[in-house]
Inverse folding.
């Protein structure tokens, strides 16, 4: 059945009828009720984050102010921090931590970029080579440490045996105080450069091809492409690699402890190994205070650096 339009007495009434809200629907001025589901979806992640990070962090701050064992605790204020900063090996550990973090971070940034440039070019078996570069990241840190401890043995180790074939007398990679820390750092770079490479590859492949085509028309070569296109537009990837590598270097423990135990002597001790030695000696509150100091150190270095790198990326 076809219904004819209802005639209105005046244009004003027609306009009012057109703008009047329909029955059963809120008017334009009425606010829409937000669904509770998006907020509640955050709850499982918030619970996991709170249980695994927030609660242990606050518990660590509390136990750093106590002398505790598994059965009791005694509040002693800041005494643990005074003892920690009076630790004779602390200066050596702090210096080694900074040196180790800077060396490994810088090497991962440079090598990761170079490998990413190579693996995003028209090279044969590109996918296979990417897998090979990333494979060390998947290997256990303890297993890598034990393997290279054998390879770097000054007496009969594969590396020194191979150097002897070409007439080079290899050093004591892990037994010479001049080489121990740098040897572990080299292994750390070998293990972690695959992740830096993967991040750089992801950053490079997202750069629009039009930029390279325009640069080719202008006569730009690979060097100019790198400095004027890839390096600026991959700044986000660079910031990510720097932050991750720096955090890993400042917190490094497993590889150093597996390969050198902080030796020879205390020459390759870092803050984490100093803390672990205090824990081994039964000074649980003291080692907890050391962990708090390490947490604050990493936060004080990484947060301003992350802010600076992200601000420059936004300005770009």
């Amino acid at each position: 059945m076809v219904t004819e339009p209802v005639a209105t007495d005046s244009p004003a009434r027609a306009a009012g009828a057109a703008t009047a809200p329909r029955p059963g629907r809120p008017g334009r001025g009425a606010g829409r009720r937000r669904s509770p589901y998006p907020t509640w979806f955050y709850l499982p992640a918030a619970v996991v984050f709170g249980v695994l990070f927030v609660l242990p962090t606050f518990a660590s701050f509390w136990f750093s102010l106590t002398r505790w064992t598994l059965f009791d605790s005694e509040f002693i204020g800041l005494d643990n921090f005074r003892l920690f900063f009076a630790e004779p090996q602390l200066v050596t550990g702090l210096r080694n931590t900074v040196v180790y973090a800077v060396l490994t971070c810088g090497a991962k940034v440079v090598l990761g970029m170079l490998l990413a440039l190579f693996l995003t070019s028209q090279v044969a078996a590109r996918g296979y080579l990417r897998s090979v570069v990333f494979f060390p990241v998947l290997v256990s840190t303890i297993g890598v440490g034990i393997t290279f401890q054998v390879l770097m043995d000054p007496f009969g180790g594969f590396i020194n045996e191979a150097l002897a074939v070409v007439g080079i007398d290899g050093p004591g990679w892990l037994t010479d105080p001049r080489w121990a820390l740098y040897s572990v750092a080299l292994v750390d770079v070998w293990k972690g450069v695959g992740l830096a490479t993967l991040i750089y590859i992801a950053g490079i492949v997202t750069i629009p091809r039009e930029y390279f085509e325009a640069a080719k028309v202008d006569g730009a070569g690979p060097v100019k492409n790198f400095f004027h296109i890839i390096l600026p537009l991959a700044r986000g990837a660079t910031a990510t690699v720097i932050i991750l590598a720096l955090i890993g270097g400042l917190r490094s423990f497993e590889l150093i402890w597996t390969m050198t135990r902080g030796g020879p002597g205390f020459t390759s001790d870092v803050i984490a190994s100093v803390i672990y030695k205090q824990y081994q000696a039964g000074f649980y509150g003291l080692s907890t205070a050391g962990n708090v100091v390490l947490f604050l150190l990493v936060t004080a270095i990484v947060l301003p650096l992350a802010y600076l790198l992200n601000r420059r990326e936004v300005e770009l």
Observations:
- The two ends are 64 Å apart (CA to CA).
